[in-house]
Amino acid sequence: MLAVKVIVCLCTYAVAVVAQGVYLQPSGYYWREFSNGHIPSDAVVGGRDRAGNPTYIGQLYGLDFELLPATIIRGSPNATSTRHVSAIQTDKNIKILCSYEPHKFRWIPTIAGEAYKLANCHLVNGGSEVNVSLHIGRVNYQSEVIIGKVFSELSIPYNGVPINFKAFQILAWDCQDL
Ligand SMILES: *[C@@H]1O[C@H](CO)[C@@H](O)[C@H](O)[C@H]1NC(C)=O
Ligand SMILES: *[C@@H]1O[C@H](CO)[C@@H](O)[C@H](O)[C@H]1NC(C)=O
User: Could you say which residues form the signal peptide (predicted)?
Assistant: First the structure.
């Protein structure tokens, strides 16, 4: 009798632990606050710097910038993006893309103007500029994998200026039949 009680007790405990685990790990993807350079443990790795370190997917807002996808590197409080003819950076009003299901992301090769053909995928929305939704892209460039914003073409910040690419990878979530 005691043994049965102990087993019931252990089972209840196990269910509680599992339930708590599920509760603590939200599903899908979401943007968390990013401040003081703190990278959350569920931040989504998006690129790679020249030393091979991971970089992260940010989103920054500025009155003159609008809401832009950005790059975050470990050890800096800043997020970097591009606007018109400049690369911009800020340490305020930044979010960082996070998920406990990073395996559901896919970086899909595409070319400017053809992303709409990826009908089996949900393209991750990275922000908005002049009333147009922006997506998140990346490219291999100068031994780095650099994250940028997709406004038809991909635009990445590089040495203080934007560089545009017609062929790049675009970030998608939970693709069917791929
Ligand atoms: C972060 O960006 C600010 C401009 O908003 C700049 O003054 C500062 O030097 C940058 N810091 C780093 C570590 O890049
Ligand atoms: C922004 O786009 C939406 C949908 O395309 C449109 O209805 C709206 O009028 C636009 N707003 C401005 C300020 O252009």
Answer: 1-19
